[in-house]
Design goal:
It is built from no helices and 14 strands. It is mostly beta strands. Strand 9 and strand 10 form a beta hairpin. Keywords: Signal.
Length: about 220
């Protein structure tokens, strides 16, 4: 029996500012004067109108990279599944004509993860931020395929939750809680967390080296 290795590539996405125009202010003023002559005089009043444009921005990273400059590399998450033959237990050894006691029960798999804890950061002034996952490339090994939802993700901070990973296509979105350290109000979001990815499906699979890719997207209204 052989060891299955299921590498999972996590695509790091950074969404650049929605608008690229500079902050502008427009002021309009009127004029007024008071007459001359005997007291009492009237006091003139002048109105001044302001128009201020504040552009939206969204910064989102998974893995390396840092605010405010987009960059970094795509992270690789790996899982190695090693079977154990019950009920001895005996770890199978590679080779031909290797005898081992086995009662015929399906072997369980121990999962060893690597690179599966990734820092995540979201910054935005665009109001409610939502995050969702999309299967970019299915988990495949030759002609064999695994549904992507054999992988799950959990967050270290409920204010920046990890979305549910779909089997295929695009999954449902989760909302990021506004505010955070360094913000002035709940309409500005600065959140960080660690997302932990896990292989949590015990169903026996065809041996092979499976690889696939997920992308995560942060969006604002």
């Amino acid at each position: 029996m052989s060891t299955q290795r299921c590498p999972l590539i996590i695509m790091r996405q950074v969404l650049l500012p929605v608008a690229l125009t500079a902050l502008g202010a427009v002021a309009q003023a009127g004029s007024a004067s008071s007459g001359t002559g005997n007291l009492p005089r009237t006091t003139p009043a002048v109105a001044l109108n302001f128009a201020i444009q504040i552009d939206k921005y969204v910064f989102f990273r998974i893995g390396n990279g840092a605010w405010p400059t987009p960059g970094g590399t795509t992270s690789l998450v790996g899982f190695s599944l090693s079977p154990t033959i019950p009920a001895v237990p005996t770890t199978p050894a590679n080779g031909n004509n290797t005898a081992v006691n086995w009662n015929g029960t399906a072997p369980p798999f121990a999962v060893t993860a690597s690179g599966n804890v990734l820092p995540v950061e979201v910054r935005s002034n665009g109001g409610q931020v939502s995050v969702f996952a999309t299967v970019t490339t299915a988990l495949t090994s030759g002609s064999n395929t695994l549904p992507m939802n054999v992988i799950s993700a959990t967050s270290s901070d409920s204010a920046l939750p990890a979305p549910t990973i779909p089997a295929t296509g695009t999954g449902t979105s989760v909302n990021v809680t506004g505010g955070g350290t360094g913000t002035v109000n709940s309409l500005v979001t600065i959140r960080t967390a660690n997302w932990t990815f896990a292989y949590d499906n015990s169903v026996s699979r065809t041996a092979g080296n499976y690889s696939g890719q997920l992308s995560f997207t942060a969006s604002v209204p």
